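retry 2 of 3: previous attempt timed out while embedding calcium ion. Reduced batch size to 1 and resubmitted. Inputs unchanged:
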Amino acid sequence: MSTILIAEDEARIASFIEKGLRAAGMTPTVVGDGRAAYDYAMTGGFDLVVLDIGLPIMDGFTVLRQLREARNDIPVIILTARDSITDTVAGLSGGADDYMPKPFRFEELVARIRLRLRETDRAPEATVLRHGGLSLDLRSRRADVDGRNVELSAREFALAETFLRNPGQVLSREQLLSRVWGYDFDPGSNVVDVYVRYLRRKLGGERFVTVRGVGYRLAESDDE
Ligand code: CA
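retry 2 succeeded.
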């Protein structure tokens, strides 16, 4: 199981990432300042660091520089405000592996984490998710139903991907909102229902089962 260090001082974002990573089968640990981030990363007990730039005591750039100076090559994904991307890209030459502009979609962060972990492991990767005649190619972003190509928007694809990654699991509207739309989305919104409707229309109405009062799940073969 992958152990992920989250260095983020904003409690709301830290807990959003922590819960999501745990649901994705990883083991997250949160620290709230740059000094702790450096110390924890140096223990060797982590596979990857999600590193915020604006951290108390020592900023993310300094943490990263010190790690690399100490010849620690742990993969690092930097979290940065969208309006300071230029600075961040400059910071990448300091040895970061990747960056995510805030706000971000959770699925996108997990995809990047998985990618970095795979590069470290060199393990074979699953790039096509399949379920009951539906297949999603994560690399080409192509969706097929019974061998026929279907056009999905980025958001529809992300929602379908979330269902296929969690077969047999009931996903609440809140879970789907946070994984597909991110933490900045209004929890009272009905956008999840609207997008499930789009997916039913494009991929088949029987594929996504409504679980009353809870949310949705992918249909099992015996539902069909
Ligand atoms: Ca911060």
